Known about the structure:
It is a single chain. By secondary structure, the chain is mainly β. It has a single domain (5-131), classed as Beta Barrel (Lipocalin). Helices cover 11% and strands 58% of the residues. It has helices at 15-21, 26-32, and strands spanning 5-13, 38-44, 47-53, 58-64, 69-72, 78-86, 89-96, 102-110, 113-120, 123-131. The chain is globular, with a radius of gyration of 14 Å.
Amino acid sequence: MTFNGPWKVDRSENYDKFMEQMGIGLVKRKLAAHDNLKITLEQNGDKFHVKEVSTFRTLELDFTLGVTFEYSLADGTELSGSWAMEGDLLKGSFVRKDNGKTLTTVRQIVDEELVQSYSYDGVEAKRIFKRA
């Protein structure tokens, strides 16, 4: 599938402002900006296996499109939500357990890069990955 394979973060756009809006403190934001995140995506039909490896943690996650699951961000923020495919877009909608606000994430392939876009409480950001 299109998303399958290993991806390494190459650059970010407005990521610090996004993390600030999410309530992440200055020290954690500065560290996260240099997390060397690598994501490996494996799609088999409507099932996905995701492995995230960064300077701070390694996480493996399995999910099925359209099925709600629980997830914790690297800073401990707990979310509940699901992913859906809309054409060539992988769209996630997650609700924060602490304040009920929605975080949306969209993954798409643009010019052979994986572009992961985020939107939270009026602030948008992107992280762009290259094949590892």
